[in-house]
Write a structure and sequence with these properties.
With 209 residues, the protein is mostly beta strands. The protein has a single domain (46-203), classed as Neuraminidase (6 Propeller). The chain contains one helix and nine strands. It has one helix spanning 193-203; strands spanning 56-65, 68-76, 85-92, 102-105, 117-118, 124-126, 132-139, 151-157, 167-171. The strands form two sheets. Strands 5, 6, 7, 8 and 9 form a five-stranded antiparallel sheet that branches. Strand 2 and strand 3 form a beta hairpin.
Length: 209
């Protein structure tokens, strides 16, 4: 059996940067709180990950509506800001057992052959009439939050879990590829007046969400 020898002299770190020894930040535990892992990535054995191979799964946003939890998150093949990066959704009745994630805002192929990068920090909005809207932002590479993305998109989640059509709710005025014909219409073109009203309620909402 081989044994490692102690370095001589002993290794000593003298730099100014320290690494916290506690991954929880030193917060006191709260009795009864549980940590639930909604999805576990597995690129090499995707059968254990609902057939999905993406290992970048980030920025989860959670909503509870009509007796179900809805969790939206960004997903990409390997790294943050990979193109394409999409917005995925899973749901659960009890918060313990979750459905297989599905892509609800797929990437858009851009004129230069690259793809959009989903990047948002708001995933849901419950309108005054009770409708649930899911949201995503279609950014462009290499940096999706540099103000050059295509715009913000929206679609409705119905009570039975089905999804409405994708629309843009706001376009960036200084977006990349300004002459590119977008694959989704503006929300105002929807034939559902309730959906249009829900989008307008979101756009005019000045309260913290």
């Amino acid at each position: 059996m081989l044994h490692a020898t102690e370095p001589s002299p002993p290794l000593v770190y003298t730099g100014p940067t320290e690494i916290a020894a506690t991954a929880d930040g030193g917060l006191q535990p709260v009795v009864g709180v549980q940590n639930i892992q909604v999805f576990r990535a597995n690129r090499t054995a995707s059968a254990h990950a609902d057939g999905l191979t993406d290992t970048y799964n980030h920025a989860p946003m959670l909503a509870y509506w009509h007796g179900r939890f809805y969790l939206e998150y960004l997903s990409g093949a390997v790294n943050e800001h990979d193109n394409p990066t999409v917005t995925s959704l899973t749901n659960s009745a009890d918060g313990l057992t979750w459905s297989a994630p599905r892509v609800i805002f797929p990437a858009i192929t851009l004129p230069d052959g690259t793809h959009t990068i989903a990047h948002q920090r708001m995933g849901f909005y419950v309108a005054p009439d009770g409708r649930l809207l899911a949201l995503s932002f279609y950014g462009t590479p290499p940096s999706p939050n540099d103000g050059k993305g295509l715009g913000r998109a929206v679609r409705e989640i119905h009570a039975d879990g089905s999804l409405g059509n994708i629309h843009f709710i706001r376009l960036n005025t200084d977006r990349d590829f300004p002459d590119f014909p977008l694959p989704y219409p503006l929300y105002s073109a929807s034939s559902d007046p309730g959906f249009v009203s829900a989008c307008e309620a979101l756009l005019t909402n000045s309260e913290p969400i």
